[in-house]
């Protein structure tokens, strides 16, 4: 079983820590565990090079003092620079236990290894220049920069920038990932995100999207037992073809395609002209509707036929606009939970831009999923997958080369293949997002959507 890394908001993490402390684990013990984990990371990445730890006035700074003490005990050349004196009792005790000198952050000279222990998840308002400017200078001059829990200046729950935040080499998340580790623009500043176990049990429905574990075909399987996908497109036939080929390469046994005639894919994709008749086939396991489909009268008829057929649905592109016109709430009445794959513009068209003060992309996706009773794949540089029951998966940062035409059609085809092979709606969406990102990683730079489909087989092999 592949372990998914949990994601907690700042409040969720505080509550988890308080539960542990009520079970007679002191706050000093938690800080020592965190500091030890930071020292271990700095030691491993530092390779014996000098370390500078920038400490703030709160508990994040306390973690930094503890890390300095443990690094010094290992023989590391470590210095501490402080923004201000500690303000919490536990941070003061950590500062007292550090018997080395403490420099002024503003005047500190750079070191090859920089550890940011200024604010972490504790910051809720814009940083003062007395903190952000020295931090930027020290990170820029370092060879490797490590943030404790979060780079200082990021809003934990929304991923917003509360100050100009430099890009770090790595971030060590304590106990669980936080939304800012995976939501943009914060995620870009975090670098590689590592997770330290500090002995705080967490229970959450929010996770990072992880490599799925998928079954391989058995000796009794054939093309119809492996899942049949029906792709309904039109208008832009290339989009439907991309989706169909993606579904095949993601493991579907059979694909029926409406809205794209001829081409090399016709050798394996059975094209159809009569959508209602195709939908009446009981062997259809999932229907993808929308790639390249214009939101016109014909498209409306096709969507109504797909909704009436009762098969598990994946709605993309043109189908999203059409379902927005007739009301997304009707999706809640379908016999099988649907999956919607909107990008930012389509999401606003479906669910409006009604203000949700302080809401994150996670909050908006969850509200949308609850409203329509469907799984939402809110695409983008920080793809968020949300289900009506509160489950959330956030994809790690993926290739920026996915910002090209047709890659969304590929993603929709992969998700449809996962759904056709028996995964529930949330699991299918999560698996599809991971496979899509892995295919992009394998494709390297400057790929086009057709290249992406070719890499899906290798990505799928990682999950068997």
Automatic annotation (TrEMBL):
Query: Which EC number(s) does the record attach to this protein?
Result: 4.2.1.136, 5.1.99.6
Can you tell me which residues bind AMP? 379-383, 408
Q: Does the keyword rRNA processing apply?
A: no
List positions binding (6S)-NADPHX.
59-63, 120-126, 149, 239, 292, 343, 409
Q: Which InterPro entries does this UniProt record tie to the protein?
A: Carbohydrate_kinase_pred_CS, CARKD, Nnr, Ribokinase-like, YjeF_N_dom, YjeF_N_dom_sf
The superkingdom listed in its UniProt entry is Bacteria
> What does the entry list as the binding residues for K(+)?
60, 116, 152
Where does the YjeF C-terminal domain start and stop, copy by copy?
206-463
According to its UniProt record, which reaction does this protein catalyse?
(6R)-NADHX = (6S)-NADHX; (6S)-NADPHX + ADP = AMP + phosphate + NADPH + H(+); (6R)-NADPHX = (6S)-NADPHX; (6S)-NADHX + ADP = AMP + phosphate + NADH + H(+)
Domain named YjeF N-terminal is located at: 13-206
Task: Name the cofactor(s) required for activity, per the record.
Answer: K(+); Mg(2+)
Which Pfam families does the protein's record reference? Answer: Carb_kinase, YjeF_N
Keywords assigned by UniProt?
ATP-binding, Isomerase, Lyase, Metal-binding, Multifunctional enzyme, NAD, NADP, Nucleotide-binding, Potassium
Copy out the cofactor comment: Binds 1 potassium ion per subunit.
Protein family: Belongs to the NnrD/CARKD family. Belongs to the NnrE/AIBP family.
Under the heading PANTHER family, the entry gives: ATP-DEPENDENT (S)-NAD(P)H-HYDRATE DEHYDRATASE, ATP-DEPENDENT (S)-NAD(P)H-HYDRATE DEHYDRATASE FAMILY MEMBER
Subunit structure, as described in the record: Homotetramer.
NCBIfam families for this protein: yjeF_cterm, yjeF_nterm
Q: What does this protein do?
A: Catalyzes the dehydration of the S-form of NAD(P)HX at the expense of ADP, which is converted to AMP. Together with NAD(P)HX epimerase, which catalyzes the epimerization of the S- and R-forms, the enzyme allows the repair of both epimers of NAD(P)HX, a damaged form of NAD(P)H that is a result of enzymatic or heat-dependent hydration. Catalyzes the epimerization of the S- and R-forms of NAD(P)HX, a damaged form of NAD(P)H that is a result of enzymatic or heat-dependent hydration. This is a prerequisite for the S-specific NAD(P)H-hydrate dehydratase to allow the repair of both epimers of NAD(P)HX.
Protein name, as recorded:
Bifunctional NAD(P)H-hydrate repair enzyme
What species was this sequence derived from?
Sphingomonas colocasiae
Please state the gene responsible for encoding this protein: nnrD
